[in-house]
């Protein structure tokens, strides 16, 4: 593996590839704007309906379009010029957000417009994400892919930390129209990053979008045990170790602090993601990515179990409230969640690098489309697990049990797949 300078993040991909740097900057700014709109739509729907169920349905309504668009977008990325596909997807997102801003400024927005435009945004973003990820290996050498994944972790951490917080402040100070408009302006940076790319037609055999293309991708995945295993491990982690659905209740019934605590707990995960990317200099040099994924996912499970243990301790302490939160308990819970965000991000660095290095160029779009389904579906199954089990038992039980389940299941699955544990980044093989 290529040497880096110490523990800090390796910036070489930004220096060596101006095209990657432009796309990275555009994706980061657009991601912050996207978070602005996601949170603002939630606030907007609640202002129109005063119904939390209506707010929760935004995510549900966008799930099916996200999955379908991710699959079809991956096929498009493997059949046509990826620069053009990414530009079309960005144009659709830009147009739908601009329409959302225009409707708001003119007072013509309705709950149905907010739902429909959110679904369009979700679908277009899936296509764009699958395509842009497939583009990266064409812009930088293979030995820089891990560093590029770490840089994307920094972008994601900034997006999740800054976007929701800015949305709340902007809506309070300027209103919905200005907040949507700011997203429209930020989105222009994505066009700069994509427009300046060269044509990027897929290399190798091209299969036109359709059922045969989908079957071709499925056949490849069936014989690619390393890629398949990383999907399975991610599903295990997200199913049993995803406590986000518990956060609103924790601020009310256990930790205190209400909605503020919910926001702080959510931000803690992003802080861990950002910090682990910032100090990823040694992480990206580790060549045994299969073992790296295994250990990182188990560390994620341990962090979630620690979070559950912290909540269990809170049961035996004096009851907190929205006005009198238990600050020591909240800070300890945030520490555990930050560790989970860091571990998940390290796993993500190795998973993304494996996907981009081991999958042939002609298959990258479709495999990224499948990965979007894993990323989108896993946390929702995890929300069901956590919510249902917490209803039957207590809020501390799902993360405590789930963390240990993640550790144990990953150990069994990884040991049953020695080829995955022996994966060498210097000799990538799907």
TrEMBL record:
<feature type="transmembrane region" description="Helical">
    <location>
        <begin position="150"/>
        <end position="172"/>
    </location>
</feature>
<keyword id="KW-0813">Transport</keyword>
<feature type="transmembrane region" description="Helical">
    <location>
        <begin position="111"/>
        <end position="130"/>
    </location>
</feature>
<feature type="transmembrane region" description="Helical">
    <location>
        <begin position="367"/>
        <end position="388"/>
    </location>
</feature>
<feature type="transmembrane region" description="Helical">
    <location>
        <begin position="231"/>
        <end position="250"/>
    </location>
</feature>
<feature type="transmembrane region" description="Helical">
    <location>
        <begin position="300"/>
        <end position="321"/>
    </location>
</feature>
<dbReference type="InterPro" id="IPR036259">
    <property type="entry name" value="MFS_trans_sf"/>
</dbReference>
<dbReference type="InterPro" id="IPR020846">
    <property type="entry name" value="MFS_dom"/>
</dbReference>
<dbReference type="Pfam" id="PF05977">
    <property type="entry name" value="MFS_3"/>
</dbReference>
<feature type="domain" description="Major facilitator superfamily (MFS) profile">
    <location>
        <begin position="1"/>
        <end position="426"/>
    </location>
</feature>
<protein>
    <submittedName>
        <fullName>MFS family permease</fullName>
    </submittedName>
</protein>
<keyword id="KW-0472">Membrane</keyword>
<keyword id="KW-1133">Transmembrane helix</keyword>
<dbReference type="InterPro" id="IPR010290">
    <property type="entry name" value="TM_effector"/>
</dbReference>
<feature type="transmembrane region" description="Helical">
    <location>
        <begin position="85"/>
        <end position="105"/>
    </location>
</feature>
<feature type="transmembrane region" description="Helical">
    <location>
        <begin position="327"/>
        <end position="346"/>
    </location>
</feature>
<dbReference type="GO" id="GO:0022857">
    <property type="term" value="F:transmembrane transporter activity"/>
</dbReference>
<feature type="transmembrane region" description="Helical">
    <location>
        <begin position="53"/>
        <end position="73"/>
    </location>
</feature>
<keyword id="KW-1003">Cell membrane</keyword>
<feature type="transmembrane region" description="Helical">
    <location>
        <begin position="21"/>
        <end position="47"/>
    </location>
</feature>
<feature type="transmembrane region" description="Helical">
    <location>
        <begin position="178"/>
        <end position="197"/>
    </location>
</feature>
<dbReference type="GO" id="GO:0005886">
    <property type="term" value="C:plasma membrane"/>
</dbReference>
<feature type="transmembrane region" description="Helical">
    <location>
        <begin position="394"/>
        <end position="414"/>
    </location>
</feature>
<keyword id="KW-0812">Transmembrane</keyword>
<feature type="transmembrane region" description="Helical">
    <location>
        <begin position="256"/>
        <end position="279"/>
    </location>
</feature>
